Amino acid sequence: MTKVLVTRVGPVDVGWSSWAVGLLKELYGRVEEPPYLVYVVVVHDAPTFRSLVSSIHEEVGALSPPAYEEYEAVHDAYTGAPRIVLCEELIRRRPMRAQAGAILHEGAHSVLHGELRFYEVSLSLASRLGLGGLSLSALYLLSVAVKDYEATRLLVDVGFRG
After folding, report:
1. Greatest Cα-to-Cα distance within the chain, rounded to the nearest angstrom
2. Burial of 52 (0-12, 13-18, 19+ CB in 10 A)
3. Which of 45, 47, 74, 162 has the largest count of CB atoms under 10 Å?
4. Structural domain count of the chain
5. Domain range holding 153?
């Protein structure tokens, strides 16, 4: 059984937050190998969400992904365990099914990509391949596309369909 540790930042609607965490727990109950521990941070407003995500990237020395300012939810494993950060304000602008999809999408990443190794880019390899800043951004976007496909496939495979 997955232990989900929830942190709320700001005046988060506890009912909505509980619903979001319930979706994640439902997902973890459907997969063969759920994560042992997942950190979930629910942030009330967009400016605080963006500031937190930026701080997380700075703290670990990660490059901020191109256009991450447009994200409403993110995931990482910089702590050694999967972490999902949800922006209540941005997600709740969507219809309920889209809200559920955004939350479950990040949950799928926590199942599939919940270890630090999925977020490391070998700078020595990038250097050997002659990848500069623009190429690193392209490589990042390609890895996002692959991971997003894997996350979507997992959700379909365990019965979450539009």
Report:
1. 50
2. middle
3. 74
4. 1
5. 3-157
Q: Which residue has the tokens 């219809």?
A: 95
pTM for the complete prediction? Answer: 0.89
Q: Both tokens of residue 162? A: 């539009």
- Please name every residue paired with 42 in a beta bridge, in sequence order, or none if there are none: 8, 86
pLDDT in tens, 20-55: 999 999 999 999 999 999 999 999 999 999 999 989
Q: Which residues of 97-136 are buried (b: 16+ CB within 10 A; e: fewer)?
A: eebbbbbbbbbbbbbbbbeeeeeeeeeeeeeeeebeeeeb
> What value does the mean pLDDT of the chain take?
88
Is 58 within a domain? yes
- Residue 45 belongs to a domain: yes
The pLDDT value recorded for residue 49 is 96
- Which CATH number do you get for residue 115? 3.40.30
Using CA atoms, how far apart are residues 105 and 40, in angstroms rounded to an integer? 13
